[in-house]
Amino acid sequence: MGFQALVYIVNLNQVETFLKTALWVWLYLSAMILVFFDLHFKVQGGLALARKKHENIGHRLVRGVRVFLSALNYRLGHYFRIKEVKTFLVYLVLPSFLFWFTVAVFYSNMGRTGIQQLYAWISTASMVVLFWYLKEVFHRKTERVDSDIFAVFSVAKIYTLTLAYSSSLVLMRRYCLPAKYYAVLIFTVSFLLVYQALFQHGLVKLKHLASALGIAAVMGVAGYFIYSLWGLNYFSAAIFMAAIYNLMWGSYHYHLDHGLNKKVFFEILIICFAVAFLVFVNTNFKERLIGSCL
Are the CB atoms for 52 and 157 separated by under 8 Å? Predict the structure, then answer.
């Protein structure tokens, strides 16, 4: 309903109302994730535990104050523990990116209702699946997520990256921003999503963070040249960049799982080349708008 409302508003060219509505929808979705986090990380039966903890205190008033403070700590303590707060913030990244880059696609395709509806329904399905598995992540509370959850998040991540690469490309070109801003945005989005994947693996260590920065840097450099050289078909540009990302992260992911060998690497490489070939043969790189800032 939120996405459909946003599509309707943006096609009325009410940009300010569109952005305000998008902000409120995002706050609602974030609140829902916070509810999942709260329900699964709070201590169950906190009041009973607090009473048992202080049952030996003789003074009634002192005992009541101690019970109240302990029960409050059991109920709200997870909001102040770094590990739990970090878990919430890391898992907020992907749904937030998915939402806001879908909003950007709506705006960049103003008036093209067919494309807007396609992305609205795909993003809705992706968001529903993400919410379901977020609930599972918070419920299981394992340091390293299970393979079923990781696979779902990986698919959603590739879709989100494609949205990010395409929508930000067309919007920055529309407002004639320099290529360096696009490169910085691509670097930031790529790094944060790789960081989330490392977090899901339980491998947020210095050497892995260095690798994440390397992958993000390659994506940033690729984004800089694609912004400068690519034609008007930003969908093909996004697919090409997603193929590059999948080559690097796919190889590194298998390395983390100790499953990377020559056969696996060449399989990933062949898929990347096949996607790149299909993109190149269907893209007119000389296509430009007359009088534009491309």
Answer: no
User: What number is the average pLDDT over the span 110-137?
Assistant: 88
Distance CA 43, CA 253 (A): 34
Confidence of residue 67 (pLDDT cuts 50, 70, 90): confident
Structure tokens given for 74: 């059991």
Contact in structure between 231 and 283 (CB atoms under 8 Å): yes
At 46, the pLDDT band (50, 70, 90 cuts) reads: confident
- Confidence (pLDDT) at 285: 61
- pLDDT-derived band of residue 200, with 50, 70 and 90 as boundaries? confident
Judge contact between 3 and 120, C-beta under 8 A.
Answer: yes
pTM: 0.82
Q: What is the DSSP string of the chain?
A: -HHHHHHHHHHTT-HHHHHHHHHHHHHHHHHHHHHHHHHHHSPTTHHHHHHHHTTT---HHHHHHHHHHHHHHHHHGGGT-HHHHHHHHHHHHHHHHHHHHHHHHHHHTTT-HHHHHHHHHHHHHHHHHHHHHHHHHHHH--SS--HHHHHHHHHHHHHHHHHHHHHHHHHHHHTT--HHHHHHHHHHHHHHHHHHHHHHHT---HHHHHHHHHHHHHHHHHHHHHHHH--S-HHHHHHHHHHHHHHHHHHHHHHHTT---HHHHHHHHHHHHHHHHHHHHT--TT---TTS--
- What's the pLDDT score for residue 121? 93
